[in-house]
Please model this.
Amino acid sequence: MTILLTGAAGYIGSHTAIALAEAGYDVAIVDDFSNSSPEAVRRCEELTGKKMPLYEADVSDKEALRKIFAEVKPAAVMHFAGFKAVGESVAKPLMYYRNNLDTTLSLLEVMAEFGVGPFIFSSSATVYGAKAKVPYTEESETGGCTNPYGWTKFMIEQIASGAAKADSNMSVVLLRYFNPVGAHPSGRIGENPSGIPNNLMPYITQVAVGRLPHLNVFGNDYDTPDGTGVRDYIHVVDLAEGHVAALKYALGHKGTEVFNLGTGHGVSVLELVHAFERASGVKIPYEITPRRPGDLASVYADCSKAERVLGWKAARTVDEMCADSWRWQKNNPQGY
Ligand code: UD1
Model:
């Protein structure tokens, strides 16, 4: 059974490709490499010993998609492709709406043409509004996003669930990721942001490897135990395994289901820095700077629904997240 993954040369897609291959599925990938490298897919093949047919195409290009669907005959689609930089989305909102929505619409239309029902989407905890209270459950209030990137995730959730309501063949699973970090334990694949990282873990690892001089900690006056922001960091391999569980669910159900994928535990910026220092043996110099606009004090998930319905639960510790992130960065100081 072949699963078609869009954007799987990227961070989360590549780890999921490995998890799917290990679970016995065949994987085909479509990516335009606008923010990723084919080398990631080559390494997924090397790690799993399985071929992963790779199509270079823009997911908004329906003609290209039709050829791929005709050849691959996917049983299900996982949609990872998309622009994902929060700050850039504020500067270039139309580019974000055009790309993230267009790709999704084309994909859903071609899925319908080919009668492919199961659709698993990379959504984000960013869809929860600032009014939602931690821990976030799937019923917490959504909307009120603070940036166009977040709105594209919110809108795609509406588009996909609306499509599933109208088409009884469809099975949509919306996966709301919390903060994915870590890397494959081999150190061969990992997160490879272009330019200066926006997210905390790749920033820390680039400081550790000497590419950046120090970490800026965005505020230490939040209402949290040590004053720094608290997030629900989840190991990317746990997240990838969550996708395998979601796929099994989607293959046996119709309609739309939403799941939080996190650990359920909040970790502060300074706790993560210190865990990383312990795991790597490298000191991370940092400075406290003002809060970053749009940041919340504390964000973590209630993941009981995923455990109850999918039988999935994150298992890897913060120390493993740090050790695996560090192994990847140390072995690949300039990325792929
Ligand atoms: C961010 C996005 C979210 C997106 C997610 C992808 C915002 C407001 N949210 O989440 O929409 O889905 O990335 O992973 O941008 N921090 C520092 N110094 C840094 C970087 C981060 O102190 O150099 C702090 C932040 O203030 C925050 C924590 O580290 O408390 C995590 O930040 P980050 O990794 O950027 O993730 P989020 O902001 O949670």
